[in-house]
Amino acid sequence: MKQHISYSELKIWAECPRKHKLVYIDKEKGFTGNEFTAFGSSIHSLCENIAQETIDESEYDDFFDECFDRELEQLDSNYEKRGELIEQMRGQAKTLSPQIAPSLNKMFPEFEVFSVEEKLFEKINDFSLDNLSFKGYIDLVVKTPDGKYHVIDWKTCSWGWDRDKRNSKLITYQLTLYKKFFCQKHNIDPKDVETYFALLKRTAKKDNVEIFRVTSGPRKTSNATELLHKALININRKMFIKNRLSCKGCEFRKTKLCP
What we know:
Layout: E1 4-6, H1 7-15, H2 17-25, H3 35-52, H4 60-73, H5 83-96, H6 100-107, E2 112-123, E3 133-143, E4 149-157, H7 163-167, H8 169-186, E5 193-201, E6 209-214, H9 218-236
Parallel strand pairs: 1-3, 4-5
Antiparallel strand pairs: 2-3, 3-4, 5-6
Helix pairs in contact: 1-2, 1-8, 3-4, 8-9
């Protein structure tokens, strides 16, 4: 019997139950990371420290480089790193990093940090199966003088997101579920919590940090919860049907694991 589920796991299940089985049940090694994931992890660490004011602006570049080098070292030894791309990314981080604090201050005047990398491991109360929990980590939660809490998830990208991606149910359900279980954990009225994506754009010519609100009202919360329940029911019933519409780009495509 499954004990918990994360948003990442839910997303993979929604895209293809067969891939979910390979990754989360069979523990098959698929995609293990590249320069882009190393950049994302490093810039996330930088954002955490900038939000908490634990480093000065003069330290941003060295802090990122140290994180980036560490992440690159942890990539699969068989992966051939692309030196030119790595150096481009170092320069992109230098352009992006000074814009993080001003963007937060502009969007959330006089904010205070409520939590960074807040762990969620909350029981799914409104579900028929017992002892199941939602697991996740919220990148940043800030509180403003009006008493509102703001749940923020950092997302690295190249130039930005188009309209379809900004409005994608499956993508925005991450924030919806984070809000639901954050409120449950702290016994906070959902009306007092707002949700945001913060885009960290590597290649944009300007406005490399963009924070935008994502609505997560009762109907959307109900729909996201319904998807969560559907996934758990099918996973526990061991229903792992292949979704051929998601085969393109899948690392298991046309392998012995998924012919």
